[in-house]
Amino acid sequence: MTDSPASADVPDVPEAELSLVAVVVPDYDAGIAFFTAIPGMGLREDSPSTTNDGRPKRWVVVGPDGGGTGLLLAQADGGDQEAVIGRQVGGRVGFFLRVRDFDTALSALKVAGATIHREPRDEPYGRVVVFEDPWGNRWDLLGPI
Known about the structure:
- This protein is of the alpha/beta class.
- It is 18% helix and 41% strand.
């Protein structure tokens, strides 16, 4: 297959890859502050963009420093979107963050304003604790045992 000029700029990716998951937040900067306070997470992109009807917005992506699936922080736009902040998956754990240093990440989450549910526990798949981000989304923090 010959590369066309347009395809030369496209990064080489597997046949399928889950690259981003959107999290609706009330404010871009608050979302950036919370998620980048977690060790190993960083701001990947913060660029001007526009809504489908031409209004200004931002394209904000945070994620693990080493790559992998990122979070698109989507600032709520209107009542329907504001209504799902913190309840995107109906109140259950819907996001999973695996870290190398569980205790450091847990401490950082507490300082950043996360609510920790119960004490951490050891499971066959690793150490785990449920936390809520400042907007009410439930996450599992996962680390090695």
